[in-house]
């Protein structure tokens, strides 16, 4: 039993099922991020944990207590909304203590709790202002203060950073992470931004179309995506997915792709699992992350199986720290991520170094991972 | 940018602007004319009016017609002046406005934030009630007042106006609250606020403009109503509008036009006052509801 148990939960609106048998167990102190494209059901799931949406079937338990049908205010959760939802007619101080007041906490205790939270979030000088007189970042802090003051079992965040500008978003992201490290509270956090998901979480649930596609640590999700959707959704630029054929050359399995001039190229796969043999001579999808394709000098020194690939460079895009290099493989644009000073030029042939340790294969029909 | 372009727009068409203002001024004068004539004549002795001098200023200024209209003029058979009926109207309008506004606000709150099966249908029916002409409800309403044993009383009139107003006030508040962020209600729910606490602490404090709209609309309609007043309140419990009619139609002796004018202005004064005091909220509230909703 976890701290927060989501047990085979489904949600239907009328005849339409928008969440299908979601099963997630969250341990105490975990930072779980629900990530996925718009409309995949993240907010719905979060609202069901909060008690703002009914549960069609299945069970949600917090601290071993089933909370189906329990009123939101009695679940000991706190939520930070995308719009912050600060009460416009109340001051910052009143906003923060409203929940305590509704729960009948005496005024002296409320003031003490408010002072603690204000100090933690550095909003002491804002307590007498109305929300309308705050900047976006300050509102964000107040919204978090309102959640923190309740000292809940579980924090729920619904895209709390999406209304901030890019710079502030990164700052607040770091702050949320610091806060989590300091307080160690269990957090469920919804976002459609995969970078937020990677940086904040201890575990990620990637959702699509009402299904949890994969549940795992950021590293598992990134390195071992369970299917094509997860592979292409997580990571920026996204993973290169190339149609390829598996060939047995001298007893070793190779992925055969075509280059810019339709020449055949072979990439050796080391320690191939037995399951690959079933796909010999059949088409598969070969997934390689951009950072696994580099110039020979920039290749990962710890990689065991670096394969060289001779192909024409089509475009280079210097981006400061990195240079993104495009080349055509198997008829698709394939992006390589290189050092800023790599010696590549458009139109030239180049020896790409491909780290095949990191390559993954997918079944083109089921889109599931092979191996 | 916006200022600069407005500037040039003004300069390039200053002539047409002057024209527009002239026309507007003319219209304003035209509409103010009756009021002006009423005011002027209410401050004249009766002989000046009957002498055929309606438009010019009084030669002899007097407030006697006002005093007479207020406290001594013949209303029907009693020489009470309009004062008791003015009080009747206040006693009728204030509770009716307050009740219909509060119930409208509650309806709007429930219809937008506590969606239930059939909410749209109920709203549709309430909306429909706005389009039912007064005349159609007269007979059923008389029957109900009879059953409740409040026929012919101010209490009865309060009930009539309150019920008849709910459709309008619900419409106002529903549209206003439809644009009110639902996340606020959800946040308050998580904070542990109940149905009425959310209404009282979160919704109402943000409803200033629409409360003004609802109050002005209701007050004007209820104060100016004649048909319900004439039908459901008799004799001493009649509202101002009915009393004004009785004043004008009292057939003893000469027709005291100056007193009639003074009475008519008295009857109109409260609605004028409400518009002057709360008019800008009215416009703001209507805009808020329509633009966001
Ligand atoms: N009240 C409702 N009635 C019917 N369908 C609904 C209702 N609310 C949500 N849905 C559907 O449920 C699905 C999931 O919605 P949800 O709001 O959870 O998406 P989301 O993952 O949070 O997306 P976003 O990133 O855009 O916020 C959507 O397809 C949506 O159309
Ligand atoms: Mg959402």
Automatic annotation (TrEMBL), chain A:
<dbReference type="InterPro" id="IPR040582">
    <property type="entry name" value="OB_MalK-like"/>
</dbReference>
<comment type="similarity">
    <text>Belongs to the ABC transporter superfamily.</text>
</comment>
<dbReference type="InterPro" id="IPR027417">
    <property type="entry name" value="P-loop_NTPase"/>
</dbReference>
<protein>
    <submittedName>
        <fullName>sn-glycerol-3-phosphate ABC transporter ATP-binding protein UgpC</fullName>
    </submittedName>
</protein>
<dbReference type="GO" id="GO:0016887">
    <property type="term" value="F:ATP hydrolysis activity"/>
</dbReference>
<dbReference type="InterPro" id="IPR015855">
    <property type="entry name" value="ABC_transpr_MalK-like"/>
</dbReference>
<dbReference type="InterPro" id="IPR003593">
    <property type="entry name" value="AAA+_ATPase"/>
</dbReference>
<dbReference type="GO" id="GO:0140359">
    <property type="term" value="F:ABC-type transporter activity"/>
</dbReference>
<dbReference type="InterPro" id="IPR017871">
    <property type="entry name" value="ABC_transporter-like_CS"/>
</dbReference>
<keyword id="KW-0547">Nucleotide-binding</keyword>
<dbReference type="InterPro" id="IPR012340">
    <property type="entry name" value="NA-bd_OB-fold"/>
</dbReference>
<dbReference type="InterPro" id="IPR047641">
    <property type="entry name" value="ABC_transpr_MalK/UgpC-like"/>
</dbReference>
<feature type="domain" description="ABC transporter">
    <location>
        <begin position="4"/>
        <end position="234"/>
    </location>
</feature>
<dbReference type="Pfam" id="PF00005">
    <property type="entry name" value="ABC_tran"/>
</dbReference>
<dbReference type="Pfam" id="PF17912">
    <property type="entry name" value="OB_MalK"/>
</dbReference>
<keyword id="KW-0067">ATP-binding</keyword>
<dbReference type="GO" id="GO:0008643">
    <property type="term" value="P:carbohydrate transport"/>
</dbReference>
<dbReference type="GO" id="GO:0005524">
    <property type="term" value="F:ATP binding"/>
</dbReference>
<keyword id="KW-0813">Transport</keyword>
<dbReference type="GO" id="GO:0055052">
    <property type="term" value="C:ATP-binding cassette (ABC) transporter complex, substrate-binding subunit-containing"/>
</dbReference>
<dbReference type="InterPro" id="IPR008995">
    <property type="entry name" value="Mo/tungstate-bd_C_term_dom"/>
</dbReference>
<dbReference type="InterPro" id="IPR003439">
    <property type="entry name" value="ABC_transporter-like_ATP-bd"/>
</dbReference>
UniProtKB/TrEMBL annotation, chain B:
<dbReference type="GO" id="GO:0005886">
    <property type="term" value="C:plasma membrane"/>
</dbReference>
<feature type="domain" description="ABC transmembrane type-1">
    <location>
        <begin position="86"/>
        <end position="278"/>
    </location>
</feature>
<dbReference type="Pfam" id="PF00528">
    <property type="entry name" value="BPD_transp_1"/>
</dbReference>
<keyword id="KW-0812">Transmembrane</keyword>
<dbReference type="InterPro" id="IPR035906">
    <property type="entry name" value="MetI-like_sf"/>
</dbReference>
<comment type="similarity">
    <text>Belongs to the binding-protein-dependent transport system permease family.</text>
</comment>
<feature type="transmembrane region" description="Helical">
    <location>
        <begin position="121"/>
        <end position="145"/>
    </location>
</feature>
<keyword id="KW-0813">Transport</keyword>
<feature type="transmembrane region" description="Helical">
    <location>
        <begin position="18"/>
        <end position="40"/>
    </location>
</feature>
<feature type="transmembrane region" description="Helical">
    <location>
        <begin position="259"/>
        <end position="283"/>
    </location>
</feature>
<feature type="transmembrane region" description="Helical">
    <location>
        <begin position="198"/>
        <end position="220"/>
    </location>
</feature>
<keyword id="KW-0472">Membrane</keyword>
<protein>
    <submittedName>
        <fullName>Carbohydrate ABC transporter permease</fullName>
    </submittedName>
</protein>
<feature type="transmembrane region" description="Helical">
    <location>
        <begin position="85"/>
        <end position="109"/>
    </location>
</feature>
<dbReference type="InterPro" id="IPR000515">
    <property type="entry name" value="MetI-like"/>
</dbReference>
<feature type="transmembrane region" description="Helical">
    <location>
        <begin position="157"/>
        <end position="177"/>
    </location>
</feature>
<dbReference type="GO" id="GO:0055085">
    <property type="term" value="P:transmembrane transport"/>
</dbReference>
<keyword id="KW-1133">Transmembrane helix</keyword>
<feature type="transmembrane region" description="Helical">
    <location>
        <begin position="226"/>
        <end position="247"/>
    </location>
</feature>
């Amino acid at each position: 039993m976890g701290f927060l148990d989501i047990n085979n939960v489904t949600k239907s609106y009328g005849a339409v099922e928008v969440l299908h048998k979601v099963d997630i167990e969250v341990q105490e102190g975990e930072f779980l991020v629900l990530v996925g494209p718009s409309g995949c059901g993240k907010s719905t799931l979060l609202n069901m944990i909060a008690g703002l949406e009914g549960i069609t079937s299945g069970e949600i338990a917090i601290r071993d207590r089933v909370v189906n049908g329990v009123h939101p205010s009695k679940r000991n959760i706190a939520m930070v909304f995308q719009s912050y939802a600060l009460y416009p007619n109340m001051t910052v101080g009143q906003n923060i203590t409203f929940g305590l007041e509704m729960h009948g906490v005496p005024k002296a205790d409320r003031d003490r709790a408010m002072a603690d939270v204000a100090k933690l979030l550095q909003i002491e000088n804002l307590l007498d202002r109305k929300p309308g007189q705050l900047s976006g970042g300050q509102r964000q802090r107040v919204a978090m203060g309102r959640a923190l003051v309740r000292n809940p079992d579980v924090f729920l965040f619904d895209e709390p950073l999406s209304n901030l500008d890019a710079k502030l978003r990164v700052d607040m992201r770091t702050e949320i992470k610091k806060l989590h490290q300091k307080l160690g509270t269990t957090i469920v956090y919804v976002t459609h931004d995969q970078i937020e998901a990677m940086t904040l979480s201890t575990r990620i649930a990637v959702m699509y179309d009402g299904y949890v596609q994969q549940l795992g640590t950021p590293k598992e999700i990134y390195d071992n995506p369970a299917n094509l959707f997860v592979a292409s959704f997580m990571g920026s630029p996204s993973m290169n997915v190339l149609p390829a054929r598996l060939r047995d050359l001298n007893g070793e399995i190779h992925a055969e792709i075509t280059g810019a001039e339709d020449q055949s190229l072979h990439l050796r796969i080391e320690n191939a699992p037995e399951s690959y043999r079933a796909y010999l001579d059949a088409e598969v999808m070969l997934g390689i992350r951009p950072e696994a394709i580099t110039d020979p000098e920039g290749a990962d020194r710890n990689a065991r199986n670096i394969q060289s690939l001779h192909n024409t460079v089509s475009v280079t895009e210097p981006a400061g720290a990195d240079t993104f290099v495009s080349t055509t493989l198997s008829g698709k644009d394939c992006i390589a991520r290189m050092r800023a000073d790599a010696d590549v030029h458009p139109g030239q042939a180049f020896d790409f170094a491909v780290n095949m340790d990191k390559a993954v294969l997918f079944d083109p029909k089921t889109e599931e991972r092979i191996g | 940018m916006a200022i600069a372009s407005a500037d040039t727009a003004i300069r390039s068409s200053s002539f047409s602007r002057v024209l527009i203002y002239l026309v507007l001024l003319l219209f304003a004068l035209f509409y103010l004319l009756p009021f002006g004539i009423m005011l002027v004549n209410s401050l004249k002795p009766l002989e000046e009016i009957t002498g055929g001098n309606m438009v010019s200023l009084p030669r002899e200024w007097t407030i006697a017609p006002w005093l007479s209209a207020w406290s001594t003029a013949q209303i029907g058979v009693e020489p009470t002046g309009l004062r008791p009926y003015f009080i009747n109207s206040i006693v009728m309008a204030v509770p009716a406005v307050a009740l219909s506004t509060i119930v409208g606000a509650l309806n709007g709150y429930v219809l937008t934030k506590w969606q239930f099966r059939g909410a749209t249908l109920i709203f549709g029916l309430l909306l429909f009630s706005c389009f039912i002409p007064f005349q159609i409800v007269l007979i059923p309403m008389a029957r109900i007042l009879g059953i409740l044993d409040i026929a012919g009383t101010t209490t009865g009139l309060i009930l009539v106006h309150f019920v008849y107003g709910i459709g309008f006030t619900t419409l106002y508040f529903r549209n206003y609250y439809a644009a009110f962020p639902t996340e606020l209600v959800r946040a308050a729910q998580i904070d542990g606020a109940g149905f009425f606490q959310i209404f009282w602490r979160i919704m109402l404090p943000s409803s200033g403009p629409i409360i003004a709209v609802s109050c002005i609309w209701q007050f004007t309609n209820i104060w100016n109503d004649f048909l319900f007043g004439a039908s459901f309140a008799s004799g001493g419990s009649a509202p101002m509008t009915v009393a004004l009619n009785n004043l004008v139609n009292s057939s003893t002796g000469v027709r005291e036009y100056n007193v009639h004018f003074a009475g008519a202005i008295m009857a109109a004064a409260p609605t004028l006052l409400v518009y002057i005091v709360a008019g800008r909220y009215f416009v703001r509230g209507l805009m808020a509801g329509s633009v966001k909703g």
